[in-house]
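Tip: read the tokens left to right.
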């Protein structure tokens, strides 16, 4: 037998062997896929039977909001309670449910907290579904691959929510996009989302590509070419998954022009996406008088924002230190914000330590989880409102400071730059900065302005924020929700 014949025979044997192996593997794959499809259909049928039983019992449809931290005191929680109040005012024949992981409080205490912090009283009670596994979305549980870990954790937390209560319409109001396909395809629900901040963005990719150190890109990664390249690949992979999950939403609301651009580029659903500016309690601050502050002996700078790393309170303290080094007369910094968990409380201790280290502890006050009246009093006494978050998605605290008639100094990025601290009828509404030196210089510039010039900026700012009022939010939110609400059987 020739070498050619031997080669042909060998190839035939190899082909026969591969076929003998691939055929059972192909059959096994078909069987596994069939079992998986049948399992999904069985779960969907079971969940829909739970919903039908609940509908028969209640006699009305239910809209559910997924907000595991609904008892926190941030802008996202204000959006939640204003959205619920809007739906209750418009639709008397629906039930409202909130999925929450706040196990240490009762539903009544949560509602009382909303009244206490935001001055929001709901027309009717809402039902709370308390989730036991909120730990699965805590960033501290995932020291590495945090975005992916929290997203996978949100799927399990969403599954707990779905099996506890199957709604007719599901709204993710906290940014857990990976729960959307779960409720849509397994629960058979209509789904919508209100996006405060994209879980990942092209700006985050740029930070890693350019190897810039930030709170979410530590030095040991930014200094390593290999780790930076690996993180870029990881971010691109995650962005693909995030876009696939978000595109399952029937309705997408975003809180600013900055968020709109990123969500459209990631979720590829421009026809279903609209900007609904978050509700800011503008009216509650309009009664703060615009008094001439030129003769004040002690002036305060107030900062409003949860004690999260991205709010960059360190930058505020360091810039304030530079101002004090140049002018020693009466000046204080008041940091007002909420603490969601032990990690936030530890961060406050670290910030207090930084104040001690820089020698400004006697000039910096921390106000944690303060009631609304105390917040309003501190804002009334302040001259400058301070904000330092890079790429803040919107900036409710910025709007509130402007409504209170403070001269705002915000970060030159994100929502403050694109939507809020913009000229009003040709007049200046505030100042923007982006590093310690520019913040310190801007503070000095504001304090050095003639009282009349400061007063004009304050008037312009107060008049410009009417477009962010509760009433504007309610009108825009209900208009955006109307197509989905129309699909509910009553």
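Filled-in amino acids:
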């Amino acid at each position: 037998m020739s070498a050619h014949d031997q080669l042909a025979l060998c190839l035939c044997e190899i082909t026969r062997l591969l076929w003998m192996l691939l055929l059972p593997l192909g059959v096994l794959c078909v069987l596994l896929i069939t079992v998986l499809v049948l399992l999904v259909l069985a779960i969907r049928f079971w969940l829909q039977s739970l919903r039908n039983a609940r509908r028969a019992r209640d006699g009305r449809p239910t809209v559910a909001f997924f907000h595991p931290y609904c008892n926190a005191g941030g802008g996202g929680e204000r959006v939640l309670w204003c959205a619920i109040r809007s739906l209750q005012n418009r639709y008397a024949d629906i039930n409202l449910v909130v999925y929450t992981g706040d196990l240490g409080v009762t539903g009544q205490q949560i509602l009382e907290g909303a009244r206490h912090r935001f001055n929001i009283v709901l027309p009717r009670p809402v039902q709370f579904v308390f989730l036991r596994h909120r730990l699965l979305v805590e960033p501290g549980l995932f020291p590495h691959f945090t975005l992916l870990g929290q997203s996978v954790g949100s799927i399990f937390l969403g599954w707990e929510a779905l099996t506890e209560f199957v709604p007719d319409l599901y709204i993710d109001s906290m940014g857990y996009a990976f729960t959307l396909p779960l409720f849509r395809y397994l629960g058979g629900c209509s789904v919508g989302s209100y996006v405060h901040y994209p879980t990942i963005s092209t700006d985050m990719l740029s930070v890693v590509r350019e190897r810039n150190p930030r709170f979410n890109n530590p030095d040991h990664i930014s200094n390593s070419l290999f780790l930076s390249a690996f993180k870029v690949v990881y971010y691109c992979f995650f962005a693909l998954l995030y876009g696939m999950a978000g595109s399952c939403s029937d309705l997408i609301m975003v809180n600013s022009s900055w968020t709109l651009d990123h969500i459209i580029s990631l979720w590829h659903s421009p026809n279903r996406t609209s900007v609904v500016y978050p509700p800011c309690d503008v009216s509650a601050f309009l009664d703060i008088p615009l008094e001439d502050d030129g003769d004040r002996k002690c002036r305060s700078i107030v900062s409003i924002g949860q004690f999260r790393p991205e709010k960059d309170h360190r930058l505020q303290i360091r810039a304030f230190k530079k101002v004090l080094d140049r002018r020693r007369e009466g000046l204080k910094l008041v940091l007002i914000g909420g603490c969601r968990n032990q990690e936030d409380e530890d961060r406050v201790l670290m910030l207090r330590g930084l104040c001690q280290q820089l020698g400004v502890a006697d000039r910096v006050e921390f106000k944690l989880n303060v009631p609304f009246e105390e917040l309003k009093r501190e804002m009334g006494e302040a001259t400058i409102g301070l904000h330092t978050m890079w790429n803040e998605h919107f900036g409710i605290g910025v709007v509130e400071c402007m409504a209170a008639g403070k001269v705002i100094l915000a970060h030159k990025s994100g929502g403050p730059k694109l939507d809020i601290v913009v000229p009003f009828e040709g007049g200046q509404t505030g100042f923007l900065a982006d590093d310690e030196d520019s913040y310190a210089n801007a503070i000095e510039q504001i304090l050095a302005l003639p009282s009349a010039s400061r007063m004009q900026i304050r008037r312009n700012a107060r008049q410009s924020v009417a477009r962010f009022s509760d009433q504007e939010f309610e009108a825009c939110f209900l208009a955006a929700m109307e197509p989905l609400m129309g699909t509910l059987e009553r």
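The first helix runs from residue 3 to 58. The mean pLDDT is 88.
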